[in-house]
Amino acid sequence: MRDIILAGNWKMHKTIKESKELALCLKEKFAGLPLNVIIFPTFTALYSVSESLKGTNISVGGQNVYFEKEGAFTGEISPIMLKEAGAKYVIVGHSERRNIFNEPDELIKKKIRSVVENEMDVILCVGEKLEERDAGRTEEVISKEIRIALDGISREVLDRIIIAYEPVWAIGTGVTASPDEAAEIHKFIRSILDDMFGRGMGANMTILYGGSIKPKNFREFAVLDEIDGGLVGGASLKCEDFYDIGKILMECKKL
Ligand code: PGA
Fold first, then answer.
1. Which end of the chain, C or N, has fewer beta carbons within 10 A?
2. Do 108 and 65 touch, CB atoms closer than 8 A?
3. Is 13 in the pocket of ligand 1 (CB under 6 A)?
4. Which ligand 1 atom lies nearest to the CA of residue 96?
5. Which atom of ligand 1 approaches the CA of 214 most closely?
6. Is the CB of residue 93 below 6 angstroms from any atom belonging to ligand 1?
């Protein structure tokens, strides 16, 4: 079943104190609303943020993970550690991980498995770079990212996967894909899932759009049936903006 989700990726922003302040503001704003909200604070703030959001409709997740349980992996964090700190979700394959930290599809595949084995849900990010788009390779790139990441996964485990389509050229740039274009890609992603897992499977998957979402531009995405919510970066750092985006999502999806 498709969920409607508003996700906020805080990236490398906010101290513990600032994170707690933002979390408390979100807690007040979103209290009692029928929206599934997930925020992704930094690792250092994750535990205290998750503690302060206990019992609310706001869940917390990790921005990244390593696939091993423990060991000599300096600087990495394991699924068990994230879960213990309160994470219910993990972002895997964000374009900043892929492009700045050179994460290949095979590593992303391993990370996904380790997250689901530890009973957390994955937000798998996919998306094309500008030069790939200009070369007409968008579908090829997205298809490859999804096929490798989800290769061999069972249908049951698929329930733990949310996909976020984030065109790399739209992240943090102020430029968004056109809503129709984004919806077309979402449809294309569902067709890949049908092909991999069987007819009708794509229609059950939650697919979010991400890339320069702001209160002023989100409505035209949120009204489209193909788009089940948003993965928000910059605008998730401001309580008011994130809440306004949430309100738009609830209105458009009639929650
Ligand atoms: P942005 O980031 O909203 O700042 O473009 C989105 C993301 O990277 O998930």
1. N
2. no
3. no
4. 8
5. 3
6. no
Report the catalytic residues. Answer: 94, 166
Per-residue pLDDT averaged across 134-150, rounded?
97
Contact 49, 39 (CB under 8 A): yes
Rounded to the nearest angstrom, the distance between the alpha carbon of 199 and the centre of ligand 1 is: 31
How many domains does the chain contain in total? 1
Query: What is the per-residue burial (b if ≥16 Cβ within 10 Å, else e) of 161-180?
Result: bbbbbbbbbbbeeeebbebe
Measured CA to CA in angstroms, residue 4 lies from 43, 160, 172, 225, 231 at distances of: 25, 14, 23, 11, 11
Q: What is the CATH number of the domain that holds 221?
A: 3.20.20.70
Q: What's the gap in Å between 194 CA and the centre of ligand 1?
A: 27
- Taking the centre of ligand 1 as the mean of its atom positions, its distance from the CA of residue 207, in whole angstroms, is 15
- CA–CA separation, 185 vs 138, rounded Å? 9
Tell me the pLDDT tens digit for each residue of 36-67: 999 999 999 999 999 999 999 999 999 999 99
Atom 1 in ligand 1: residue holding the nearest Cα: 233
Which range of residues forms the domain containing residue 162?
A: 5-253
Task: Provide the total of helices (H) and of strands (E) in the chain, helices listed first.
Answer: 11, 8
Residue 1 has pLDDT above 90, yes or no: no
Distance 12 CA to ligand 1 centre (A): 12
pTM listed for this prediction: 0.97
